[in-house]
Amino acid sequence: MKRRWKWAIGIAAGLLMLALIGWRMAVRYRLQVYWMFTSRGFNSKGGDITITNARVWTGDPANPWGDAVTIRNGRIAALDAANPAGRVVDAGGRLVVPGLWDGHAHPQAPYVLTSPEAPTLFGAKSVEEVLDRLRDYAAEHPEDKFPRLFGWMSSIFKEGEHPTRQMIDAVVPDRPVYLVHHGGHSHWVNTKALEIAGALEKDPPDLRGTGKIERDPKTGLATGFLEETEYAATSGLMLNTIKKIKPYTLDEQEIIQRIILDEYSKVGVTSVWTKDGDIDITRVYEKLLRDDALPVRATLDNMYTPYSDLADLARFKARADELSASGLPANFLRADTVKLFLDLPIKGWIWMFEPYTDGSGSPGQPVFSVDDFRQQMIEADVRGLQINISIYGDRALHECLNIIEELERRDPAPIRPRRHMIEHAQYVIDKDLPRFKQLGVIASMNPIVSYPEMAFQNDLKEYMGEDRQKNVFQHFRRMLDSGVLIVNGSDFPLAPMDPLVGIHILVNGTDIDGKPEGGLWPHKLISVEEALRTYTTAPAYANFAEDRLGMLKVGYDGDLVVLSGDILATDFNREKLWKVKACLTVLNGHVVHEDFGGTEKTMEFNK
User: Fold this and answer.
1) Helix/strand/coil for 582
2) How far is Cα 163 from Cα 157, in angstroms, rounded to an integer?
3) 75, 535, 567, 587: least buried by Cβ within 10 Å?
4) Both 168 and 268 in a single domain?
């Protein structure tokens, strides 16, 4: 009996020990995983590295070329290798350029608009294929309380048809589901999502702005198709519902954000400018910086939406000042910018001087009244916020330039020079083109988004007309010839984040497959160097960082990328631009990505 008792005690003690060991291993594993995605030492201290045997394009017109770069303590110490520092990397004669920018992106949108492990819906050719991807994901992830998938295309539906909630209900009836259109402005939801948002039977009182919930004309019930009810990663009918469910803690958001931002290093991007956000999102980036783990320099726009009020502009400025005074490593995080918008990229809300060509007689309309928009501009400007305005139609652009001119008259000597930026500006009347330079306005364009699919282009031509459409791509050339500073970006996740894809499109006028033959529109050539500057020197200036970023100069921050192909060589095949990859990406003197292998770069354009 005693022996059995001893055995029992021994077994119990052994199980307890195993449990303790298992618990400690589990805790240790969680910490290891957590720190794997956080502390990397990128930000608090600059690194040392020397790049030799290179063809160095500095971006500096006064000293455009070199053959080596030495970075010491995160700063460029010399454009030679006479006194090397840290690791010495032989570039093998490859081209070295300043760290690239993504001047227009939504890198925080994916963890709001998609579930972290969900597949994209890009490339799905039918409704059935979209629903199959959703079905598989939902079955594999029963823990996901609010499945969200991104990227379905309008072309999966016949002309005049829209998605319905019943289609999703047949696959996932018991959890709210949220499927985001590839353009980000339309959404497909199930009955459960509409019930939780209080929008199934009638429009909820908190629906703002231009939001439209399509309803069955017989029953009045929502069909499951929504337009303009969401505002990027900031606010909206579904987004506010997601935030109520609180799918992620701050720690989880940090890890997810880090995973997304790490992808930028792989394509040579060392700085990003986000075009949506709010104060909550600045806390995610702040935590990454506090944990010494921010793999890019980030400028964060705060988005002003129909859910905002003028007092929010003061809160944005206070938050930006708080970050500036936080004692965090300098020159990695900036949030004193605001994104406003006057019209939207959908039919009826692109505000033009001349009517659409669809016979409706409508020229579109603005989201906000001009007086309301003017007040937003004035309030942001007097608080010293840099203003970035999303504009699509030529009338909206004209009114915006008028207000910027008015700001200059009201205060011709601001504390900080105005470098306000107009995003997109797809349609410009001739007399407004020179006003960009006259007013010091910067243009932000996104060439990759011009090529999501031909069906998208054909839809635009249906109501904008071919004459207007064929001139859109010419604005790049016309603006460059007029001395307008152009900043380019990807609009990720609506398109690939790779700047080489954007440069390819600017230079060739086609997508990466060379389609359509001869270019989407009659194409006036843009040189590779001109395109490269829109991803280096131009965004640095727009970001008030021209004295430390955008060029490789002694004393500048140590951000650079070694490219696999010499895109600036006179004999380089321009049709291969998109195939060039980042072999080495350096941020603040630290290697954040390295791939000198011979693996060929591949990409499916719509994924």
Assistant:
1) strand
2) 8
3) 75
4) no
